[in-house]
Design a protein that fits this description.
Two copies of one chain form a homodimer. Chain A is an alpha+beta fold. Chain A is built from five helices and three strands. Chain A has one domain (about 5-105): Winged helix-like DNA-binding domain superfamily/Winged helix DNA-binding domain (Arc Repressor Mutant, subunit A), CATH 1.10.10. Chains A and B meet through α1, α2 and α5 of A and α1, α2 and α5 of B. The structure holds a DNA duplex.
Chain lengths: ~110, ~110
DNA sequence: AATAATACATAACATTCTTATGCATTATAC
DNA sequence: GTATAATGCATAAGAATGTTATGTATTATT
């Protein structure tokens, strides 16, 4: 089962920042594969979502990049900047809090029925 | 603290379906207040998001409506249809599952650092 | 030799939320 | 008593962000 795409909206940036916080540096394709692996294929990040998000993180100074060649094939590695590390902590914390709230909402028992 | 709006994206329909599953019938304004109350004001549903969503649920046959007058003021009550009840269970279940997955992702310990 | 996987990128389109606006009734505070 | 806040609905322009499709190229596998 793959989660409906709408569910992933709004969490993508946080997922990426969290992975980069844990792994020092990663390249785009690697991120998609890591997320797929860690979630038993339930979250599949599409390239059309991934690359614009990475570029936005770069534009806002949260990540820095290094380009490397593996043979003739290019790889662009992303790493968190100092700001990015702070932002990663904030976003992860916010999402954890949000999930606690949602868990509470979803576990509510039926009321005036 | 109010959650960043992007976080709520994708969960709004599920929240509404869950509330309707628990409460037999509710009207729009009541839903916004209930969510605000249950989440200690951390989730505030705006009218511009709420009403289009309710209308979409109605158009897809997941809810039925009854209009009532309180004095001269109109209220539109929403109730789950049979399909809506099924859908509510599905969406709540999917979101619970998704949150477990996200919790796992966010709780991961740093790796190759 | 053909196909799949790796690896980047962008663009048209769709969806969905924000922000603003509009209208109207009822309760509250000054 | 009247101005403001709260209640209650609705829609529309614009922004944000994801989907789907496309493009290019290298390397591994069948």
């Amino acid at each position: 089962m793959i989660y409906s795409s709408e569910l992933i909206k709004g969490t993508l940036k946080t997922i990426i920042l969290k992975l980069l916080a844990d792994n020092k540096r990663m390249y785009g394709y690697e991120i998609t594969q890591k997320v797929k692996e860690l979630t038993s294929e339930k979250i599949q990040i599409t390239e059309g979502a991934l690359y614009p998000t990475l570029h936005a993180l770069e534009d806002s100074g949260l990540v820095t990049t290094e380009t490397e060649y593996i043979g003739k094939r290019v790889r662009k590695y992303y790493s968190l900047s100092a700001d990015g590390k702070t932002k990663a902590r904030e976003k992860v914390s916010e999402l954890s809090d949000f999930m606690e709230t949602m868990k509470f909402l979803l576990d509510l028992k039926p009321q005036g029925i």
